[in-house]
Amino acid sequence: MHIVFIQNRFRLRLLAVFCAVFVGVPAVSGQTSSPPNVIVIFMDDMGYGDPVSYGGGPYQTPHLDRLAAEGMRFTHFYAGQPVCSASRAALLTGCYPNRVGIHGALFPGSPMALNPEEETIAELLKGAGYRTGMVGKWHLGDRVPFLPLQHGFDEYLGLPYSNDMWPVDFDGKPVTDTSSWKFRSPPLPLIEGNETVDLIRTLDDQATLTTRYTERACEFIRKNKEQPFFLYLAHSMPHAPIAVSDKFKGKSGAGLYGDVMMEIDWSVGEVMRTLSELDLDENTLVVFTSDNGPWRNYGNHAGSSGGLREGKTTSWEGGQRVPCIMRWPEVIPAGTVCNQLASTIDLLPTLVAFCDAKMPDKEIDGLNIASLMKGDTDSSPREDFAYYFGRNNLQAVRKGSWKLVLPHAYDSYEQNAPGYDGFPGKRAKVTTELALYDLQADPGERVDLKTRFPDVVEELLAVAQRYRELLGDELSGYEGVARRKAAMTTDQKDD
């Protein structure tokens, strides 16, 4: 049956090419007959080097490999910031997170949340007639006024924040240290809509999450097969603590992290299989990417930066450059690689254009990268990128292949040995001075070229100054003229 299916698909493709040639137009023009369905699969702490198509292993990721073979693999794709909440705000709003007032990782009960006045991808596509669903980790406000249903999603199932924000220690046992913030944390709430429907209390409970998320995602696809839909599937894995269902435990031959990667790959395969069974895969844009780089001090329970420097919570490449695979047969040429600069903040304006939706009323930072997705190798929509972290610290800027690292302090993973089997190693607080790197020749950011290319330094300092004046920079005392406020649930004010 599988062979027959492939043959039939091949014949349909051949017929499409014949018809296109007959009428004298390209077979793949980048224009579709109807707005596409959109699925964004957003991983948590998956490193640039984790998928096999990016050099990962020794586990196997055949479904991700196929996604890359049938679509486009981006090699210079960046999260909005190298940390959970900020990165998710960037994805959904098309803004640098400091523009919309979000920074760091919001803890349970945090008074800060994504402002309902910000327009998300879900709201914009819903306005264009899409059904919108979210499954997985939200992390932009855990109170009812700020959960996904209040930000444009028609339905939601998932955790309101990271899976380590619970009263459980690294060994999987209840926290007994009364001075620990974890001791004061509630059990992880699994929320459906606006209501808690289950509690995640143990690592065995966490082991069910990837499967539960996947089943709900496929159910959403089946339920909305007759109309355009937007699905945001935000997995909790492979963020520590990692856990895997019995069907994949010990199956990868590469330890627990390999098992988790195997289950994530299975999840992608289930989504793609569902699309294929419903004849939706040809006109569905699937985007697979991550919120930031790996949490490297967790050692064998963390992912790989693929040789890039450092990891999560740093503005070095290992913290913010992430894997990104896009597949859409009607638009994206198969088996291609994009080496141009792009970011999660660029998804919103791109999706708005493809889905015939309207742009947000307020200014955003994202750019339309449709030309890159269509395979235009001469196109370069994004000329530069700003690396912000902390409350509002501009730590680096990039233009072309050049990256200027600005003086700042950061937590390094490279000064101490990592942890093991779920326990974290120590990070060291270190500082860096001004440094210039050529990311084409030196993606690991090891050779400082600032004395050799002072003119490039001056050019990138001008880029940095433009961002300081626009979005601010606490490191140099700039407030920024374009920043907006996050929502606050108390009398506290977000600055």
Brief digest:
25% of the residues lie in helices and 18% in strands.
Largest sheet report: 10 strands, mixed
Mean pLDDT: 93
Question: How are the strands ordered across the major sheet?
Answer: 8-7-6-5-9-1-10-11-2-12
The chain-level structural class is: alpha/beta
Beta-strand percent range: 15-25%
Radius of gyration: 22 Å
Which regions are unreliable across 5 or more consecutive residues at pLDDT < 50? 1-31, 491-495
| Name given to the CATH homologous superfamily of the largest domain | Alkaline Phosphatase, subunit A
- How far apart the termini lie comes to 60 Å
In terms of quaternary structure, what is this? single chain
- CATH architectural grouping of the largest domain: 3-Layer(aba) Sandwich
In CATH, the topology of the largest domain is named Alkaline Phosphatase, subunit A
Work out the number of β strands.
20
Silhouette: globular
* Total of helices: 11
Helix percentage range: 10-25%
What is the CATH domain class of the largest domain? Alpha Beta
Number of domains: 2
What do these coordinates show?
The protein is α/β, with parallel strands linked by helices and 495 residues long. The chain folds into two domains: 36-383, Alkaline Phosphatase, subunit A (3-Layer(aba) Sandwich), CATH 3.40.720; 386-488, Arylsulfatase, C-terminal domain. Helices cover 25% and strands 18% of the residues. The strands form five sheets. A ten-stranded mixed sheet has the order 8-7-6-5-9-1-10-11-2-12. It has a four-stranded antiparallel sheet with strand order 14-15-16-19, covered by helices on one side. The longest helix is centred in the middle third of the chain and has 23 residues, at 255-277.
